[in-house]
Write a structure and sequence with these properties.
With 300 residues, this protein is α/β, with parallel strands linked by helices. It has eleven helices and seven strands.
Length: 300
Amino acid sequence: MAFQELMGLSNRLLTDAQALAALTARLRLDELGVEGDPAVGAQLDRVVDALGAREHVEGLDEGERSVVLSFARSYLAQALDLVEDPDRAGSWSYADPVLLQAQGSASAVVARLIADAGLGSANARILDVGTGVGGLAVALAKRFAESTVVGIDPWGPALALARENVASAGLDGRVTLLNQSVQELEDPDGFDLVWLPSFFIPEPVLDAAIARIHTLMRPGATLVVGVHDVTDKEPLASAVGDLFTVRAGGSVVYPEDALARLRDAGFDDIREVERDWDAPLRLIVGRARRRPLGRVVRNG
């Protein structure tokens, strides 16, 4: 009986996984601008119709399709990696350029969320922690005119792709990439806006990272902490989200926990941004209270 029940459960979950793969394939064909094999394409359309997603798929603009496709490709690739290497310790150690680029493209949507929340400004100095392949760094530089972005990441394979992406975007003069961990970053000029994705920062160093960021921020500067939206999810979705966060080497942080961490680190005006998007992401914001002691002051 246990075998039959487990097989039944596997079959139901398999249908969901295959449906996501089919939806992703349909979006990929649209992105490439090709029809593909007519027989396969007809079945892809059938799956999309069964999902009730035809209108949504056809209503996407190029940028929206890229975001959805990037999220799906990244998570499918991470899921396969989990199956192939289930005993690997939690860390972001992916070297597959397709996965890395997909994750980077997905992260670029954060620039729009930050801008829509009124948290950035033109001519700002921005720190992108865990920049990966530079997708968000490029998006921030484009979103905020005349701003400069420092993207840091300790993972070499991702940074190699980031340098190509920044150069391709023509932003070498405005985006600086460093092979650097945040808790060890030195910067005498300071930052006006900092992005910190808690789901990519290991739990043992998260508080040290937040404290270090505070010392690097200009008075009144804004820290935006990204946390996974887990509090309102079903138990299965919450468990799966936490699993992939931990396996990526990140911290499972709830909004109330993030608020408390920023308060303890000395931030003011701490709040959660009102969420009006569907992505499983919540933004926690804090402002630098004062010029931290020990900060290098230029010309003075």
